[in-house]
Amino acid sequence: MLILQQQQYLHWDKLATVVVLDFTYLLGSVQSSIPEVKYLLNLGNILNFFFFILLQVFQPVGIMSKRVNFLPWEDYFMSVAFLSGMRSKDPSSQVGACIVNSDNIIVSIGYNGMPRGCSDDDMPWAKEAESRLETKYMYVCHAEMNAVVNKNSADVAGCRIYVVLFPCNECAKIVIQSRIKEIVYYSDKHKHKPETIASKRMFDMAGIICHAEMNAVLNKNCAKISGCKMYVLVFPCNECAKFIIQEEIKELIYYSDKNIHTQESLASKIMFNMAGIKYRKYEGKVEAVTIDFDSIDWNITTQLPPTPTKT
Ligand SMILES: O=c1ccn([C@H]2C[C@H](O)[C@@H](COP(=O)(O)O)O2)c(=O)[nH]1
User: Fold this and answer.
1) If phi over 0 gives left and psi between -120 and 50 gives alpha, with beta otherwise, what is residue 206?
2) Given 15, 32, 57, which residue is the final one in a domain?
3) Candidates 84, 89, 95: which one to mutate for ligand 1, based on the most atoms within 8 Å of Cβ?
4) Alpha carbon of 268 to ligand 1 centroid (Å)
5) Measured from the CB, is residue 112 less than 6 Å from ligand 1?
6) Which domain holds residue 12?
7) 90 CB less than 6 Å from ligand 1?
8) Residue 171: CB within 6 Å of ligand 1?
9) Residue 53 within a domain
10) Count of domains in the chain?
11) pLDDT tens, position by position, for the chain (311 residues)?
């Protein structure tokens, strides 16, 4: 079990040793001819010696040298992942993630929660219900996704991700597509589930098929795409909807809603409505866009403008 404890910076025992040592040193350095005082001074010297040895043996750390019992990188990052998980409102599983670059700098953290704008109080948290639409699984953004989306660097390529739970297949896709290079996990408690087996298969092969929306978000060429519009061929499923909401895309224009009757599509709409994301069907002005390469007059397109002359 990983335990987070408050670090103690003031060591009273070490402070007391130094005070006693200083006092006995002072006593030992004074000269006197009175036998009682001489006796006390000798005692002072003995105590001085005794405490000096004690200090050398037990107290070199913290007073004279650097601390040695500091938190190692691995425990530090995993603790941050656990700490993030503590923000989760999921009643059964609190999952946290922490992304770290090759300089051991934390570039992002995340935990499992409802998409932005979808109220924690109104969304379902049940694991089972008559309809999957009434379970949390359709809506919760996983810790890994939130960590990737909330990064404070341009990208997370080459980074490591520390996670409380081994990533599911949906998160595996995100982790692979964002070019994270290493996964450090704490628990593999769902190792027998198809989601985890699929995840491991993808990590082994790293040749995966991802939804177009996720690829478009992950391959963006700017730091943020908040406020952007997204054009898609097919209305996004619930997994892509989470991504779109978390990236703060503001408008969605789709061509086909062919999966309109699926629970995934219904869940997407519930989330978009709650998050205030507009969506509309594409109403094109033209029926088709044709690029006829043969009709291009290369003579015209390759003509350079006339060279300016000096007057
Ligand atoms: O890779 C993962 C897998 C799961 N989560 C989140 C999603 C849910 O909120 C919980 C799982 O709930 P259970 O009650 O244990 O089924 O964990 C995640 O963030 N990342």
Assistant:
1) left
2) 57
3) 95
4) 18
5) yes
6) 5-57
7) yes
8) yes
9) yes
10) 2
11) 434 333 344 455 555 655 655 555 555 555 566 777 777 767 777 776 777 677 666 655 556 788 888 899 999 999 999 999 999 999 999 999 999 999 999 999 999 999 999 999 999 999 999 999 999 999 999 999 999 999 999 899 999 999 999 999 999 999 999 999 999 999 989 999 999 999 999 998 875 566 778 878 887 878 788 999 999 989 999 999 998 999 999 999 998 999 999 999 999 999 999 999 999 998 888 888 887 877 777 766 666 677 777 77
